[in-house]
Design goal:
Layout (H helix, E strand, L loop, with lengths): L1 H16 L2 H7 L19 H9 L1 H44 L22 E8 L5 E8 L2 E12 L6 E9 L14 H4 L5 E8 L17 E2 L4 H8 L5 E4 L30 H4 L18 H7 L15 H28 L3 H9 L4
Parallel strand pairs: 2-6, 4-7
Antiparallel strand pairs: 1-3, 1-5, 2-3, 3-4, 5-7
């Protein structure tokens, strides 16, 4: 009886285990034959490496650029070192020239080729302005107001050809000479006769290919084309700038053309009507050398406002120097890394083979 029971149980067990679902539960775990080791990506583009291996000329070209970059950038850095020294010396020379006292007189014969050695050097000269050949440079904006720079030939009393004098900035409404010949500052706006002025030599940039040539006969110049100005006005190609000055020059009044004398209504209460007719208000300040006017008075009366003497030279060569040496250092490091990498994996096939072997 017991034997029969055991046989029945075994038969039932075989019948149950024969079903598919239960067979899956009873199966043991089998280890996969696949290599589940994580795949590491190769640094760089394999397709590009393969293409370069098939095109050695292209690879040599890029390698040549990598070799040339450190050399070229280092050479440019060394060139900027020389430029830095040159610009520093030039600024120091210009500042020294500007600090020198004014020369009392200019020689009758001036050589334009030596003027660059005297840039920013101040001088005094006697003569008179030639208003018939007056020119205007601009337009120029000053304090938000449109105007022009007045450039007038100056005939020297010592002889020689005239020189170009930039007198300063005037309002656009004062470009017409007749509007500057009247007023209580007419002797400063358009001084007549022989006067003494103080100016400094300037070397203006030459005309570039991007700038239009000056229209012959026009008195308006868009940029300081000194050769064209000198040819049109019949002067030496020497450009000078008057120095910023708001003082009254009483000595210029004696040569001023007669104008309607201005009377003071206050003086009418102090003197007789006959004596009032012989009094000119401008003579009250004739000997006041400390008198200074305001800029708005100069603008209103058409008196040119000269430029303040200062060195207008930029020095950015230190930045260029650091930039080029930095590029040279970075490209050198990149070249060394590239050579080291190429020695380890000289071709795309070796990189792929190393990847398959699990070395990278």
């Amino acid at each position: 009886m017991l034997v029969n029971s055991i046989g029945i149980v075994n038969s039932l067990k075989r019948e149950v285990l024969s079903k598919p679902i239960l067979k899956q539960w009873s199966r043991s775990v089998k280890t996969s034959t696949l290599d589940w080791k994580p795949v590491k990506s190769v640094q760089g583009n394999l397709s590009l490496l393969e293409q370069q291996s098939k095109n050695p000329k292209l690879r040599s070209f890029f390698f040549g650029l990598m070799v040339a970059m450190p050399i070229i950038s280092f050479g440019l850095g060394c060139w900027q070192v020389k430029r830095l020294k040159w610009k520093t010396d030039l600024i120091a020379k210009s500042e020294n020239a500007l600090a020198q006292p004014s020369m009392d007189e200019l020689p009758a014969i001036l050589d334009p080729s030596v003027i660059p050695e005297f840039e920013y050097r101040k001088f005094k000269v006697k003569g008179h302005f030639d208003y018939d050949h007056e020119m205007f440079l601009g337009p120029r904006i000053r304090d938000g107001t449109l105007g022009y720079l007045v450039v007038t030939p100056f005939v020297r009393s010592s002889g020689g050809k005239p020189i170009l004098i930039e007198r300063g900035w005037i309002h656009k409404d004062k470009v017409i000479p007749e509007r500057r010949q009247t007023g209580y500052l007419s002797h400063l706006a358009m001084p007549q006769g022989e006067i003494e002025i103080e100016a400094l030599f300037r070397i203006m940039p030459t005309r570039s290919n991007m700038q239009f040539e000056h229209e012959a006969g026009s008195i308006v110049f868009h940029f300081p084309d000194v050769p064209a100005m000198a040819e049109q006005a019949g002067t030496l190609p020497i450009y000078c700038q008057m120095i910023y000055d708001l003082k009254d020059h009483a000595e210029w009044k004696k040569n001023a053309e007669p104008a309607d004398k201005k009377k003071s209504s206050i003086l009418g209460f102090l003197v007789s009507p006959k004596a009032e007719q012989d009094i000119d208000i401008s003579k009250l300040f004739e000997h006041d050398e400390t008198l200074q006017f305001q800029e708005f008075e100069f603008v209103k009366e058409g008196v040119p406002i000269a430029a303040t003497p200062k060195i207008k030279l930029s020095n950015n060569h230190m930045q260029y120097l650091v930039t080029w040496f930095g590029v040279s250092l970075a490209s050198t490091v990149l070249l060394i890394y590239s050579v080291w990498k190429s020695r380890q994996f000289s071709s795309a096939e070796k990189i792929i083979a190393a990847k398959r072997q699990g070395k990278i």
